[in-house]
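It is worth pausing here to work through a concrete case rather than discussing structure prediction in the abstract. The textbook approach is simple: state the sequence, then state the predicted structure, then interpret. We follow exactly that order.
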Amino acid sequence: MSDARQAIWSAEASGAARRAPNTLQAAWILLQKAQAHLETGAYEDARRYALDARDEAIKAREDAVRNTAVRPESP
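Step two, the predicted structure:
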């Protein structure tokens, strides 16, 4: 869960909310599912969702960085 949160925060810091919003949103949804499964004791499912959230967040960060090179953020 911690890795997923850190990856999401890193994606947000790279501008993913503006440059890769759909992917970032998917990461948040997966993290919420992981948290819900954790709270019910479904630890394996929680782990799977957390790993998927981390992967989506990494993709969002990469997309944001790539989109910055193509379209710089306006002031």
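Step three, interpretation. The chain has a mean pLDDT of 92. Residues 2-70 form one domain.
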